[in-house]
Amino acid sequence: MYIFRALKHRNYRLHFTGQAISLMGTWMQRIAVSWLVYRLTESAFILGLVSFVSLAPSLVLAPFIGNFVDRHNRYRIVLTTQFGLMLQAGALTLLILIGHYNVWWIGVLSFIQGVINTFDVTARQSLMVELVPEKADLPNAIALNSSAFNAARMLGPAVGGILLSNFGEAVCFGVNFVSFIAVLGSLFAMKLVERPVPRKQESAWQGLKEGFNYLRHSPHLSSLILLLGASSLLVIPYTTLLPVVAREMYNGDATIFSWFESAAGLGAMCGAIYMARLKAGANLRFRVMKAAGLFAFGILLLSFAAWLPIALISTMLAAMGMMVQNSSINTYIQTHAMPALRARAISYYIMAFQGIFPIGSLLIGALAQLWGIHYTLVFQGIAGALIALAFVIYIRQHITRRYIPVAD
């Protein structure tokens, strides 16, 4: 089938299978960490602070790591990082089982996870072109990755919510630890032709400047990264508030919270399927505009939803818009960036997404503590609409500048 065409590549098929299994455990761990932190503190601000700690390394390290990945074997980096993430999940499980845990230790382990993840995501995204040698299949592979991620986001919280309610956080962390066996097995089974790694002698700072200068002279890439950065600061952190939405707006427990996570996963899954069906040559920047508008609409609808089913539908729409927006930006960068600078371009994408997001989580968590959940969501919806409008204006001006005939 056309929608699954990237799976014809053996190495990508192994990667997809291993990641699909491992991501189920990842999402179980995510909701367990969020619920554990909120259960211990009952503070939206602390919830945002832990999210900040877990993703802050992406802001500081991502551009330097992009330079590192461009100069080293990406497959070996991914193998190392997956093993590191497995150990982190094992440490969390052990802490809960022996009963010696608090928000401090959760924050430390979340920070360690954030550092490893920054290496992992940059290397794994850059490795995609080696797993899918036919460039025409690359957008489909990226969309299928998003499908696996969001299918896990839909199913993982649902299963995790049941395990969390009945057995506690340790089981969720333990399942994530075991799930890494699948992804490590798939990596060992791959048969990759080792490509020569450039050994250009330059400092990390020189590599960082080269990547920045490349983006500065590539407005078609930098405009998308700026949009993503603004969205990560003001809009995407709505995901951090879902435990607060579940408890304060609907007097819910861990099960209700898992419904919101699953609704977000369902919406994102629909967006991923939509992206997987796109044919080569689709105008991705116009899809970014539409998706950003849908994202903002979903959050505004959620802020005024008085009935739980409407809130779940709103969450689904917001997640669908967010997924199509981010996946379109990711696909555009991977297919349009220069090969020699691809990892550095991707690292700025990661910085704009995962790096700015923790600052946004901290900001939005503080606003929720100060204003309450309703007004915070209204603010985020309006901010998302303004970001989408700004990008529409930029695209229209860009097209005008490009196509207006010049007088003789």
Task: Please characterize this protein's 3D structure.
The structure is a single chain. With 408 residues, this protein is an all-alpha fold. The chain has a single domain, classed as Growth Hormone, Chain: A (Up-down Bundle), CATH 1.20.1250. The chain has helices at 10-41, 44-70, 74-98, 103-131, 138-167, 169-189, 204-216, 219-234, 242-249, 254-276, 284-304, 308-336, 342-371, 373-403. Helix 1 (10-41) packs antiparallel against helix 6 (169-189). The radius of gyration is 21 Å and the shape is globular. The chain starts with 9 loop residues before the first helix and ends in a 5-residue tail after the last helix. Residues 402-408 have low confidence and may be disordered.
For the sheet with most strands, the description reads: none
Instruction: Look at the structure and name the CATH superfamily.
Output: MFS general substrate transporter like domains
Look at the structure and give the mean pLDDT.
82
Architecture in CATH? Answer: Up-down Bundle
Helix content: over 70%
